[in-house]
Amino acid sequence: MDTTDTIAAVSSGSGGAISILRISGSKALNISSNIWQSRQRLSPEKARTMILGKINGGEPALAVYMPGPASYTGEDIVEIHSHGGNICARRALNLAIEAGARQAEPGEFTYRAFLNGKMDLTQAEAVADMINARNNSALKLSEKQISGLLKNKLSKSREALSLALSEIESRMDFPEEDLDWKSPEELSSILSDTQRDLEKLLATKLEGQVIREGVRVVIAGRPNAGKSSLLNLILGTERAIVTALPGTTRDTIEEGASIRNIPVRLTDTAGIREADNIIESMGIERSKDSIQSAEIIFWLLDASVENLSEEIEEMKTHCPLEANAIAVWNKADISKTNLPDTEMRTVKISAKTGEGLDCLFDEFEKAVWHNTEKHESELAVSSRHAALLEEALECLPEAIQHISQEDWEIAAVPVRAAINAIGRITGETADPDVLDQIFSRFCIGK
Ligand SMILES: Nc1nc2c(ncn2[C@@H]2O[C@H](COP(=O)(O)OP(=O)(O)OP(=O)(O)O)[C@@H](O)[C@H]2O)c(=O)[nH]1
Ligand SMILES: [Mg+2]
Question: For 143, 220, 245, 341, which has the most beta carbons within 10 A of its beta carbon?
Fold first, then answer.
């Protein structure tokens, strides 16, 4: 990808009243003068000031010039805000391309910001997180990460390790000389402090995953247990058909929702039984697949039936033992008897009246956080960060051991590897394929 030409893209989403064309690169000012006119010209004297003009004699549009390097990308940027919807911005984009700009790839503005040292990789990733944020927790996390919180913590660790490495290398290079070296104990303690800092970051892995990627919840159970009723209750709409006939839901139904500020993919499934026709049995196969891939299962038990222990037996047959499952006795409003023990996390609800839903959500939260405290960290690492943190952390005990034995050459190897792993998180040593993968997640125009 050329990183020196001038790029342009519509940066606003569709459907708004104002649409924004963004142009970045050394020819931004020149290109904008070909497509937008006003009595006042865009110039360094008028930097960061909105000026009213028109797109080539047509629609009114405000334009602003943000000279590099103090701009988002670090390059000259011109933004044209047209008051005519996306068609206007598209027309302006075509004019910009005719005038010499290239259509930007997804995430290319942010990629340039990264290349020009305006942000590190964790900050660039947080820009994508902010765009994709589905709730306030995700938004807050992305803001903290954009501000450089993770970057600074990692830089501190990287600096500490680099200091240790230079000491180790100096011992290797001048073994005979008695320089003012740190003792092996001092070096080990630098490394173990760093190890502790990185472990703290790694401990936020689950939170990062839950908030960024959400949780896959599957509602399963026997026919007529009230699965679709529960889906509708959680969504607050009549999304799935509910009837008194067992076997109403034939296919899986998937919807996005938020429970206690946690994004979830909710899947309603066909009730599991011996099917008497091909359509239903295909649906039941899908139910079983969904159960296998679920992170959390709400297994619905019908509390109004005669044989309650059969409900539990059926659950134990189909719900994997190791699954993170909640047994949900439904139809509490019409159940007369005491409910038998399921020997697992259990709640009692009525999908009809809404009774017990809060208890189900309490249990859901406990299941999400694996019974640990509710998480509300300032920052939470992504799966990519976590994998590299693990890689760095594997190296440190080995380094500490070799330092204590004063095996300097051998000790240097894991310290270098740990520095490299941290560098791949922040992008200092990331390889181009990884960068491509990260920036391709962005939308066009960011
Ligand atoms: N009284 C009462 N009836 C309920 C409750 N939940 C569901 N029902 C009724 O039970 C019947 C079946 O409900 P559904 O939500 O369709 O059950 P399902 O588990 O999705 O059934 P299948 O799709 O056939 O597997 C309907 O008549 C619902 O109105 C409840 O909490 N209380
Ligand atoms: Mg159903």
Answer: 220
Outline where 21-84 has alpha helix (H). Answer: 28-35
Whether the CB of 331 sits within 6 Å of ligand 1: yes
3-state secondary structure of 330: strand
Residue 122's nearest CA partner among 86, 103, 149, 156 is: 149
CA 188 – ligand 2 centroid, Å: 60
CA 250 / ligand 2 centre spacing (Å): 8
- CATH class held by domain 7-120: alpha beta
211-368 folds as: Rossmann fold (3.40.50)
Assess whether the C-beta atom of 224 lies below 6 angstroms from ligand 1: yes
Does the reported pTM lie above 0.85?
A: no
Q: 126-204+380-427: CATH homologous superfamily?
A: tRNA modification GTPase MnmE domain 2 (1.20.120.430)
Q: Which atom of ligand 1 is found nearest the CA of 330?
A: 31
Q: What's phi and psi for 84, nearest 5 deg? A: -135, 20
Return the ligand 1 atom nearest residue 232 CA. 15
| Interacting residues of 394 by C-beta distance below 8 A, sequence separation 6+ | none
Report pLDDT for 438: 87
Successive 10-residue mean pLDDT values, the chain, 446 residues: 90 85 97 95 95 90 96 97 85 95 94 95 94 87 95 96 93 74 91 97 93 94 97 97 95 95 95 92 96 96 95 93 93 91 95 97 94 76 96 97 93 96 93 85 80
Atom 14 of ligand 1, residue of closest alpha carbon:
226
